[in-house]
UniProtKB/TrEMBL annotation:
TM segment ranges: 6-23
Organism: Spirosoma soli
Keywords from the UniProt entry: Membrane, Transmembrane, Transmembrane helix
The name this protein goes by in its record: Lycopene cyclase family protein
InterPro entries to which the protein is assigned, alphabetical: FAD/NAD-bd_sf
Amino acid sequence: MKKYDFIIAGGGMAGLSLAYYFTQSSLRDRSILILDREQKNRNDRTWCFWEREAAQAGSGSPAPNPFEAILFRKWNTVSFHGTTHAGPLDMGEYRYKMLRGIDFYEFVQNELVKWPNIEQKQVTINRIKDTPQGGFVIADDEPYIADYVFDSTFALKLDQPENHNLLQHFKGWVIKAEKQCFDPTRPEIMDFRVDQQGDCRFVYVMPFDAQTALVEYTIFNDKLLADDEYDTSLRQYIGRFFDTGTYQICETEMGVIPMSDETTHEYPSEHIVRIGTAGGYTKPSTGYTFQRTQRYLRSIVENLTETGKPNRHLPWFLGRFKLYDSVLLNVLEKHRHPADDVFTRMFSRNRPATAFRFLDEDTRFIDELRLFTTMPWWAFTSAFFDVLRRKIVG
Ligand SMILES: Cc1cc2nc3c(=O)[nH]c(=O)nc-3n(C[C@H](O)[C@H](O)[C@H](O)COP(=O)(O)OP(=O)(O)OC[C@H]3O[C@@H](n4cnc5c(N)ncnc54)[C@H](O)[C@@H]3O)c2cc1C
Protein backbone atom coordinates (compact mmCIF):
# COMPACT_ATOMS: atom_id res chain seq x y z
CA MET A 1 0.00 0.00 0.00
CA LYS A 2 1.33 3.42 -0.92
CA LYS A 3 2.14 5.56 2.09
CA TYR A 4 1.28 9.24 1.64
CA ASP A 5 2.92 12.07 3.51
CA PHE A 6 -0.46 13.61 4.27
CA ILE A 7 -4.06 12.52 3.91
CA ILE A 8 -6.64 15.26 4.09
CA ALA A 9 -9.89 13.61 5.18
CA GLY A 10 -12.67 15.97 4.10
CA GLY A 11 -12.01 18.45 1.31
CA GLY A 12 -14.32 21.22 2.51
CA MET A 13 -13.28 24.64 3.72
CA ALA A 14 -10.57 23.49 6.14
CA GLY A 15 -9.28 20.57 4.05
CA LEU A 16 -8.96 22.57 0.85
CA SER A 17 -7.46 25.56 2.67
CA LEU A 18 -4.83 23.25 4.16
CA ALA A 19 -4.04 21.74 0.75
CA TYR A 20 -3.73 25.26 -0.65
CA TYR A 21 -1.32 26.30 2.11
CA PHE A 22 0.78 23.19 1.42
CA THR A 23 1.14 24.27 -2.22
CA GLN A 24 2.35 27.68 -1.04
CA SER A 25 4.99 26.22 1.31
CA SER A 26 8.19 24.21 1.06
CA LEU A 27 6.02 21.10 1.61
CA ARG A 28 4.54 21.54 -1.87
CA ASP A 29 6.23 18.40 -3.24
CA ARG A 30 4.91 16.04 -0.55
CA SER A 31 2.49 13.30 -1.54
CA ILE A 32 -1.00 14.37 -0.52
CA LEU A 33 -4.33 12.58 -0.83
CA ILE A 34 -7.62 14.46 -0.40
CA LEU A 35 -10.73 12.37 0.30
CA ASP A 36 -14.27 13.73 0.18
CA ARG A 37 -17.63 12.19 -0.59
CA GLU A 38 -18.81 15.33 -2.39
CA GLN A 39 -17.60 17.04 -5.50
CA LYS A 40 -17.83 20.54 -4.06
CA ASN A 41 -19.23 22.00 -7.25
CA ARG A 42 -22.20 23.81 -5.67
CA ASN A 43 -22.40 27.13 -3.91
CA ASP A 44 -23.34 25.32 -0.69
CA ARG A 45 -22.40 28.17 1.67
CA THR A 46 -21.15 31.72 1.88
CA TRP A 47 -18.51 32.76 4.36
CA CYS A 48 -18.48 36.21 5.90
CA PHE A 49 -15.77 37.43 8.22
CA TRP A 50 -13.98 40.60 9.21
CA GLU A 51 -10.31 41.27 8.70
CA ARG A 52 -7.88 44.11 9.21
CA GLU A 53 -6.81 45.69 5.94
CA ALA A 54 -3.25 44.47 5.31
CA ALA A 55 -2.07 47.90 4.14
CA GLN A 56 -3.42 49.61 7.23
CA ALA A 57 -2.55 46.99 9.78
CA GLY A 58 0.45 47.62 11.97
CA SER A 59 3.30 45.24 12.66
CA GLY A 60 2.27 41.86 13.99
CA SER A 61 -0.80 41.95 11.74
CA PRO A 62 -1.96 38.63 10.37
CA ALA A 63 -0.73 37.59 6.92
CA PRO A 64 -3.08 38.87 4.22
CA ASN A 65 -5.87 36.56 3.23
CA PRO A 66 -4.86 34.57 0.13
CA PHE A 67 -8.49 34.56 -1.01
CA GLU A 68 -8.70 38.36 -1.26
CA ALA A 69 -8.82 38.27 -5.08
CA ILE A 70 -11.90 36.06 -5.13
CA LEU A 71 -13.97 37.87 -2.49
CA PHE A 72 -17.52 38.35 -3.67
CA ARG A 73 -18.03 41.58 -1.71
CA LYS A 74 -16.09 43.73 0.75
CA TRP A 75 -17.52 46.54 2.90
CA ASN A 76 -16.00 49.36 5.00
CA THR A 77 -19.09 49.88 7.11
CA VAL A 78 -21.66 47.53 8.54
CA SER A 79 -25.06 48.21 10.06
CA PHE A 80 -26.44 47.02 13.38
CA HIS A 81 -29.94 47.25 14.87
CA GLY A 82 -30.03 46.60 18.60
CA THR A 83 -31.85 47.78 21.70
CA THR A 84 -30.35 51.27 22.00
CA HIS A 85 -28.34 51.62 18.80
CA ALA A 86 -29.50 51.49 15.21
CA GLY A 87 -27.30 52.42 12.30
CA PRO A 88 -23.79 52.12 10.97
CA LEU A 89 -20.81 50.83 12.94
CA ASP A 90 -17.46 52.35 12.14
CA MET A 91 -15.22 49.37 11.51
CA GLY A 92 -11.99 51.38 11.68
CA GLU A 93 -9.19 49.35 10.18
CA TYR A 94 -11.46 46.32 9.67
CA ARG A 95 -13.34 45.32 6.55
CA TYR A 96 -16.29 42.97 6.39
CA LYS A 97 -15.79 40.39 3.66
CA MET A 98 -17.89 37.85 1.84
CA LEU A 99 -16.59 34.79 0.02
CA ARG A 100 -18.88 32.43 -1.87
CA GLY A 101 -18.27 28.73 -1.38
CA ILE A 102 -18.22 27.98 -5.09
CA ASP A 103 -15.60 30.66 -5.81
CA PHE A 104 -13.41 29.28 -3.03
CA TYR A 105 -13.73 25.65 -4.21
CA GLU A 106 -12.93 26.61 -7.83
CA PHE A 107 -9.99 28.80 -6.88
CA VAL A 108 -8.37 26.09 -4.76
CA GLN A 109 -9.07 23.35 -7.33
CA ASN A 110 -7.45 25.47 -10.06
CA GLU A 111 -4.31 25.55 -7.91
CA LEU A 112 -4.40 21.87 -6.88
CA VAL A 113 -4.62 20.52 -10.45
CA LYS A 114 -1.17 21.99 -11.10
CA TRP A 115 0.34 19.53 -8.61
CA PRO A 116 0.72 15.89 -9.75
CA ASN A 117 1.70 14.92 -6.20
CA ILE A 118 -1.79 15.87 -4.98
CA GLU A 119 -4.42 13.17 -5.57
CA GLN A 120 -8.13 13.50 -4.92
CA LYS A 121 -10.74 10.78 -4.55
CA GLN A 122 -14.49 11.06 -4.22
CA VAL A 123 -15.17 8.43 -1.56
CA THR A 124 -16.99 8.05 1.75
CA ILE A 125 -14.70 7.71 4.74
CA ASN A 126 -15.78 4.88 7.03
CA ARG A 127 -13.04 4.93 9.61
CA ILE A 128 -9.94 6.84 10.71
CA LYS A 129 -7.57 5.36 13.25
CA ASP A 130 -4.03 5.68 14.47
CA THR A 131 -1.51 2.86 14.03
CA PRO A 132 2.21 2.66 14.86
CA GLN A 133 2.90 3.01 11.10
CA GLY A 134 0.83 6.16 10.63
CA GLY A 135 -2.71 7.51 10.33
CA PHE A 136 -4.97 4.93 8.72
CA VAL A 137 -8.15 5.69 6.77
CA ILE A 138 -10.72 3.31 5.35
CA ALA A 139 -12.88 4.80 2.64
CA ASP A 140 -15.27 2.80 0.43
CA ASP A 141 -13.55 -0.33 1.84
CA GLU A 142 -10.11 0.76 0.58
CA PRO A 143 -7.31 1.37 3.10
CA TYR A 144 -5.03 4.43 2.94
CA ILE A 145 -2.13 5.37 5.19
CA ALA A 146 -0.08 8.53 5.78
CA ASP A 147 2.36 10.10 8.19
CA TYR A 148 -0.40 12.50 9.17
CA VAL A 149 -4.14 12.43 8.60
CA PHE A 150 -5.83 15.84 8.80
CA ASP A 151 -9.44 15.08 9.64
CA SER A 152 -12.30 17.54 9.15
CA THR A 153 -14.98 14.82 9.05
CA PHE A 154 -15.07 13.97 12.74
CA ALA A 155 -18.50 14.72 14.25
CA LEU A 156 -18.15 16.48 17.59
CA LYS A 157 -20.21 15.05 20.45
CA LEU A 158 -21.29 17.98 22.56
CA ASP A 159 -22.90 16.42 25.57
CA GLN A 160 -20.91 17.09 28.74
CA PRO A 161 -23.13 18.76 31.36
CA GLU A 162 -20.35 20.99 32.75
CA ASN A 163 -20.06 22.66 29.33
CA HIS A 164 -22.30 25.05 27.44
CA ASN A 165 -23.62 23.52 24.25
CA LEU A 166 -25.63 25.95 22.20
CA LEU A 167 -26.24 25.83 18.47
CA GLN A 168 -26.21 28.62 15.96
CA HIS A 169 -28.81 27.63 13.40
CA PHE A 170 -29.98 29.61 10.46
CA LYS A 171 -31.70 29.63 7.14
CA GLY A 172 -30.86 32.14 4.46
CA TRP A 173 -32.39 33.10 1.14
CA VAL A 174 -30.70 34.96 -1.67
CA ILE A 175 -33.59 37.01 -2.98
CA LYS A 176 -33.96 39.09 -6.10
CA ALA A 177 -36.48 41.87 -5.52
CA GLU A 178 -38.62 43.59 -8.13
CA LYS A 179 -37.76 47.01 -6.64
CA GLN A 180 -34.47 48.62 -5.63
CA CYS A 181 -34.71 48.20 -1.87
CA PHE A 182 -31.24 47.29 -0.56
CA ASP A 183 -28.30 49.58 0.13
CA PRO A 184 -25.34 47.70 -1.39
CA THR A 185 -22.88 49.70 0.74
CA ARG A 186 -24.45 48.62 4.05
CA PRO A 187 -24.60 44.99 5.12
CA GLU A 188 -26.57 44.39 8.29
CA ILE A 189 -24.56 42.11 10.58
CA MET A 190 -27.18 41.81 13.32
CA ASP A 191 -30.74 43.09 13.14
CA PHE A 192 -32.47 42.28 16.40
CA ARG A 193 -35.83 43.75 15.34
CA VAL A 194 -37.37 40.28 15.43
CA ASP A 195 -39.27 38.62 18.26
CA GLN A 196 -36.56 37.25 20.56
CA GLN A 197 -38.83 34.60 22.13
CA GLY A 198 -36.39 34.42 25.05
CA ASP A 199 -33.48 33.48 22.75
CA CYS A 200 -30.90 35.35 20.78
CA ARG A 201 -32.53 35.87 17.34
CA PHE A 202 -31.46 38.21 14.62
CA VAL A 203 -31.41 38.68 10.87
CA TYR A 204 -28.35 39.15 8.79
CA VAL A 205 -28.66 40.96 5.44
CA MET A 206 -25.82 40.93 2.92
CA PRO A 207 -26.76 43.07 -0.09
CA PHE A 208 -25.16 42.13 -3.42
CA ASP A 209 -26.77 45.05 -5.24
CA ALA A 210 -29.86 47.24 -4.87
CA GLN A 211 -32.18 44.36 -5.77
CA THR A 212 -30.36 41.26 -4.52
CA ALA A 213 -29.38 40.20 -1.01
CA LEU A 214 -28.72 37.22 1.21
CA VAL A 215 -31.18 37.45 4.09
CA GLU A 216 -30.52 35.01 6.92
CA TYR A 217 -32.66 34.32 10.00
CA THR A 218 -30.35 33.19 12.81
CA ILE A 219 -30.93 31.79 16.30
CA PHE A 220 -28.57 30.92 19.16
CA ASN A 221 -30.26 28.29 21.33
CA ASP A 222 -30.35 24.52 21.73
CA LYS A 223 -33.37 23.61 19.60
CA LEU A 224 -33.68 23.64 15.82
CA LEU A 225 -36.90 24.92 14.24
CA ALA A 226 -39.07 23.15 11.70
CA ASP A 227 -38.11 24.24 8.20
CA ASP A 228 -41.29 26.25 7.62
CA GLU A 229 -40.71 28.27 10.83
CA TYR A 230 -37.49 29.70 9.38
CA ASP A 231 -39.41 30.45 6.15
CA THR A 232 -42.20 32.25 7.98
CA SER A 233 -39.71 34.37 9.93
CA LEU A 234 -37.79 35.25 6.78
CA ARG A 235 -40.98 36.19 4.93
CA GLN A 236 -42.18 38.35 7.83
CA TYR A 237 -38.86 40.14 8.16
CA ILE A 238 -38.54 40.89 4.45
CA GLY A 239 -42.17 42.06 4.27
CA ARG A 240 -41.74 44.34 7.28
CA PHE A 241 -38.43 46.04 6.49
CA PHE A 242 -38.00 46.07 2.71
CA ASP A 243 -40.21 47.42 -0.03
CA THR A 244 -39.30 44.61 -2.38
CA GLY A 245 -42.39 44.39 -4.58
CA THR A 246 -42.46 40.75 -5.57
CA TYR A 247 -39.27 38.77 -5.07
CA GLN A 248 -37.75 35.53 -6.20
CA ILE A 249 -35.78 33.15 -3.95
CA CYS A 250 -32.68 32.37 -6.04
CA GLU A 251 -30.67 30.31 -3.51
CA THR A 252 -31.23 28.80 -0.09
CA GLU A 253 -28.64 27.97 2.58
CA MET A 254 -29.11 26.31 5.93
CA GLY A 255 -26.58 25.69 8.62
CA VAL A 256 -26.05 24.53 12.16
CA ILE A 257 -22.82 25.58 13.82
CA PRO A 258 -21.80 24.37 17.29
CA MET A 259 -21.39 27.10 19.91
CA SER A 260 -19.73 25.07 22.62
CA ASP A 261 -16.92 25.37 25.13
CA GLU A 262 -16.42 21.61 25.27
CA THR A 263 -12.72 20.75 25.04
CA THR A 264 -12.09 19.41 21.56
CA HIS A 265 -9.16 17.14 20.85
CA GLU A 266 -7.32 18.77 18.01
CA TYR A 267 -4.54 16.18 18.36
CA PRO A 268 -6.34 12.97 19.42
CA SER A 269 -3.31 10.79 18.66
CA GLU A 270 0.16 10.90 17.17
CA HIS A 271 -0.69 10.77 13.47
CA ILE A 272 -4.13 12.37 13.46
CA VAL A 273 -4.90 16.06 13.56
CA ARG A 274 -8.46 17.37 13.55
CA ILE A 275 -9.02 20.56 11.65
CA GLY A 276 -11.88 22.97 10.96
CA THR A 277 -15.07 22.57 12.94
CA ALA A 278 -13.94 19.04 13.89
CA GLY A 279 -10.79 20.50 15.48
CA GLY A 280 -12.74 23.02 17.56
CA TYR A 281 -11.80 25.97 15.33
CA THR A 282 -15.25 27.56 15.64
CA LYS A 283 -15.30 30.56 17.99
CA PRO A 284 -17.71 29.28 20.66
CA SER A 285 -19.43 32.58 21.36
CA THR A 286 -20.01 33.68 17.75
CA GLY A 287 -19.86 30.62 15.50
CA TYR A 288 -17.40 32.37 13.16
CA THR A 289 -14.96 29.75 11.85
CA PHE A 290 -13.49 30.85 8.53
CA GLN A 291 -10.81 33.26 9.69
CA ARG A 292 -9.70 31.19 12.66
CA THR A 293 -9.35 28.18 10.38
CA GLN A 294 -7.07 30.15 8.06
CA ARG A 295 -4.96 31.35 10.99
CA TYR A 296 -4.65 27.94 12.62
CA LEU A 297 -3.89 26.09 9.38
CA ARG A 298 -1.15 28.55 8.46
CA SER A 299 0.40 27.87 11.82
CA ILE A 300 0.15 24.07 11.32
CA VAL A 301 1.94 24.34 7.97
CA GLU A 302 4.59 26.62 9.47
CA ASN A 303 5.21 24.16 12.31
CA LEU A 304 5.41 21.22 9.95
CA THR A 305 7.89 23.11 7.81
CA GLU A 306 10.05 24.15 10.74
CA THR A 307 9.84 21.16 13.09
CA GLY A 308 8.35 18.29 11.08
CA LYS A 309 5.40 18.24 13.51
CA PRO A 310 2.06 19.94 13.01
CA ASN A 311 1.35 20.80 16.66
CA ARG A 312 0.33 24.37 17.40
CA HIS A 313 1.43 25.59 20.83
CA LEU A 314 -0.75 28.33 22.17
CA PRO A 315 0.73 30.74 24.69
CA TRP A 316 -1.00 30.04 28.05
CA PHE A 317 -2.30 33.59 28.41
CA LEU A 318 -4.50 33.20 25.31
CA GLY A 319 -6.45 30.63 27.35
CA ARG A 320 -8.30 33.59 28.91
CA PHE A 321 -10.40 33.92 25.75
CA LYS A 322 -11.83 30.44 26.38
CA LEU A 323 -13.00 31.66 29.76
CA TYR A 324 -14.62 34.75 28.16
CA ASP A 325 -16.40 32.50 25.64
CA SER A 326 -17.72 30.29 28.44
CA VAL A 327 -18.97 33.30 30.38
CA LEU A 328 -20.80 34.73 27.36
CA LEU A 329 -22.27 31.31 26.52
CA ASN A 330 -23.41 31.01 30.14
CA VAL A 331 -25.16 34.40 29.95
CA LEU A 332 -26.93 33.28 26.77
CA GLU A 333 -27.76 29.75 27.90
CA LYS A 334 -29.09 30.81 31.30
CA HIS A 335 -30.89 33.87 29.88
CA ARG A 336 -29.12 36.05 32.46
CA HIS A 337 -29.59 39.19 30.35
CA PRO A 338 -31.34 39.75 27.00
CA ALA A 339 -28.87 38.79 24.26
CA ASP A 340 -29.89 41.68 22.00
CA ASP A 341 -28.80 44.10 24.72
CA VAL A 342 -25.50 42.27 25.36
CA PHE A 343 -24.49 42.60 21.69
CA THR A 344 -25.80 46.17 21.52
CA ARG A 345 -23.61 47.15 24.45
CA MET A 346 -20.63 45.37 22.96
CA PHE A 347 -20.85 47.26 19.66
CA SER A 348 -22.25 50.63 20.76
CA ARG A 349 -20.44 51.28 24.06
CA ASN A 350 -17.06 50.27 22.66
CA ARG A 351 -15.28 51.28 19.51
CA PRO A 352 -16.74 48.69 17.09
CA ALA A 353 -13.20 47.96 15.88
CA THR A 354 -12.26 47.08 19.48
CA ALA A 355 -15.24 44.73 19.70
CA PHE A 356 -14.16 43.03 16.43
CA ARG A 357 -10.60 42.83 17.69
CA PHE A 358 -11.83 41.32 20.98
CA LEU A 359 -13.86 38.69 19.11
CA ASP A 360 -10.70 37.97 17.10
CA GLU A 361 -8.84 37.33 20.41
CA ASP A 362 -6.39 40.03 19.52
CA THR A 363 -6.97 42.61 22.29
CA ARG A 364 -4.76 43.55 25.24
CA PHE A 365 -5.95 42.64 28.73
CA ILE A 366 -6.53 46.32 29.54
CA ASP A 367 -8.88 46.68 26.52
CA GLU A 368 -10.74 43.58 27.68
CA LEU A 369 -11.24 45.02 31.18
CA ARG A 370 -12.62 48.21 29.64
CA LEU A 371 -14.98 46.20 27.43
CA PHE A 372 -16.22 44.19 30.43
CA THR A 373 -17.24 47.40 32.21
CA THR A 374 -19.74 48.02 29.39
CA MET A 375 -21.48 44.70 29.98
CA PRO A 376 -24.37 44.17 32.45
CA TRP A 377 -22.16 43.45 35.47
CA TRP A 378 -24.52 41.30 37.55
CA ALA A 379 -25.31 38.92 34.66
CA PHE A 380 -21.64 38.53 33.77
CA THR A 381 -20.43 38.22 37.37
CA SER A 382 -22.94 35.47 38.14
CA ALA A 383 -22.06 33.76 34.85
CA PHE A 384 -18.36 33.94 35.72
CA PHE A 385 -18.91 32.22 39.09
CA ASP A 386 -21.25 29.65 37.54
CA VAL A 387 -18.58 28.80 34.93
CA LEU A 388 -15.99 28.36 37.70
CA ARG A 389 -18.40 26.19 39.71
CA ARG A 390 -19.19 23.99 36.68
CA LYS A 391 -15.50 23.56 35.90
CA ILE A 392 -14.65 22.63 39.52
CA VAL A 393 -17.71 20.58 40.52
CA GLY A 394 -18.50 19.22 37.04
C1 LIG B 1 -24.39 27.32 5.46
C2 LIG B 1 -23.21 27.71 6.32
C3 LIG B 1 -22.78 29.03 6.34
C4 LIG B 1 -21.67 29.39 7.14
N1 LIG B 1 -21.27 30.69 7.15
C5 LIG B 1 -20.19 31.03 7.87
C6 LIG B 1 -19.71 32.38 7.85
O1 LIG B 1 -20.32 33.26 7.25
N2 LIG B 1 -18.56 32.67 8.51
C7 LIG B 1 -17.87 31.72 9.21
O2 LIG B 1 -16.81 32.04 9.77
N3 LIG B 1 -18.32 30.46 9.28
C8 LIG B 1 -19.45 30.09 8.63
N4 LIG B 1 -19.90 28.80 8.67
C9 LIG B 1 -19.20 27.85 9.58
C10 LIG B 1 -17.95 27.22 8.95
O3 LIG B 1 -17.09 28.19 8.44
C11 LIG B 1 -18.29 26.24 7.84
O4 LIG B 1 -19.13 25.22 8.31
C12 LIG B 1 -17.05 25.60 7.21
O5 LIG B 1 -17.41 25.03 6.01
C13 LIG B 1 -16.40 24.59 8.15
O6 LIG B 1 -15.29 24.03 7.49
P1 LIG B 1 -14.89 22.51 7.69
O7 LIG B 1 -13.83 22.21 6.72
O8 LIG B 1 -14.68 22.25 9.14
O9 LIG B 1 -16.20 21.69 7.30
P2 LIG B 1 -16.80 21.49 5.79
O10 LIG B 1 -16.53 22.70 4.97
O11 LIG B 1 -18.20 21.08 6.03
O12 LIG B 1 -15.92 20.29 5.26
C14 LIG B 1 -16.04 18.97 5.73
C15 LIG B 1 -15.95 18.07 4.49
O13 LIG B 1 -15.91 16.71 4.92
C16 LIG B 1 -16.67 15.94 4.04
N5 LIG B 1 -17.10 14.75 4.76
C17 LIG B 1 -17.74 14.69 5.95
N6 LIG B 1 -17.91 13.40 6.31
C18 LIG B 1 -17.34 12.64 5.34
C19 LIG B 1 -17.19 11.24 5.14
N7 LIG B 1 -17.63 10.35 6.04
N8 LIG B 1 -16.57 10.82 4.02
C20 LIG B 1 -16.08 11.69 3.11
N9 LIG B 1 -16.21 13.03 3.24
C21 LIG B 1 -16.83 13.50 4.34
C22 LIG B 1 -17.84 16.84 3.63
O14 LIG B 1 -18.36 16.45 2.38
C23 LIG B 1 -17.17 18.22 3.59
O15 LIG B 1 -16.73 18.55 2.28
C24 LIG B 1 -21.00 28.41 7.92
C25 LIG B 1 -21.48 27.10 7.89
C26 LIG B 1 -22.55 26.75 7.13
C27 LIG B 1 -23.04 25.31 7.16
